[in-house]
């Protein structure tokens, strides 16, 4: 019934009501403050909402929680804000399918110690508790796009975008109920491409697609029963002037993958 948008330039979150015909109208009271500076990602599970705020390099980098009412009103959740260091450069924030785990990705800087994954358990009050050992080290430079398996809430996949030309990979993690992360198999799983920035998983949990922004291609992986990945193929996008593929989503049928091209010709 609602669509939430991170308004990075105005430090706000907008709530749009989805009408029966698919058109949008702004919900009453929208937009609201994101609780930080430059929101870049939103996680939603039921009526619980968390926002990753990038910050300005000095201030305002955090994760902040909200409640979404049945009428589309977004209200800040007291005690939910988790400050992040200025070097965090948070990217994705996401819930697993049960809403019991919340993960945030710290893309970091050029310092390997800043490539981190924050993991939390979520209580009935909606407040996150850091898992023992969190934040966990990423497996390669620039952890970026991420997604939990839609069929296995304990499997998390994170693309590694900043390892350099031809060194792109996707990491596979097992996430315990307590939020602890551990590698699956021989993770990370390389694809020979550059800057895999976003991932999308098929609705049946059998396949993962990594969008390689710098290589202008999409890599397809099979997700094995144990959660490890098997690289199947890499498909180049249609050639054109300054093509730059970004985020991707499968349609409800799972038969068509739509990819944003962020280039300006």
């Amino acid at each position: 019934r609602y669509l939430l948008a991170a308004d990075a330039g105005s430090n706000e979150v907008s709530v749009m009501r989805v009408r029966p015909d698919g058109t949008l109208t702004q919900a009453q009271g929208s937009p609201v403050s994101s609780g930080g500076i430059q929101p870049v990602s939103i996680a939603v599970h039921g009526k619980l909402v968390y926002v990753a705020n990038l910050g300005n390099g000095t201030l305002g980098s955090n994760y902040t929680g909200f409640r979404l009412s049945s009428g589309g009103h977004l209200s800040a959740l007291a005690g939910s804000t988790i400050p992040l260091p200025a070097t965090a450069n948070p990217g994705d924030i996401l819930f697993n399918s049960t809403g019991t785990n919340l993960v945030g990705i710290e893309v970091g800087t050029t310092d390997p110690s800043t490539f981190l994954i924050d993991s939390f358990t979520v209580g009935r009050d909606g407040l996150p508790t850091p898992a023992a050992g969190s934040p966990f080290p990423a497996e390669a430079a620039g952890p970026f796009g991420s997604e939990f398996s839609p069929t296995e809430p304990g499997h998390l996949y994170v693309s590694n975008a900043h390892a350099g030309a031809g060194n792109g990979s996707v990491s596979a993690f097992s996430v315990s109920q307590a939020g602890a992360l551990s590698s699956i198999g021989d993770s990370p799983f390389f694809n020979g491409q550059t800057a895999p920035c976003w991932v999308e998983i098929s609705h049946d949990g059998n396949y993962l697609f990594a969008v390689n922004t710098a290589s202008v291609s999409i890599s397809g992986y099979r997700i094995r029963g144990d959660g490890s990945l098997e690289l199947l193929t890499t498909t180049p996008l249609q050639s054109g002037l300054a093509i730059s593929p970004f985020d991707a989503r499968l349609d409800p049928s799972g038969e068509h993958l739509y990819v944003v091209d962020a280039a300006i010709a």
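The first strand starts at residue 2 and ends at 7. The chain has a mean pLDDT of 96.
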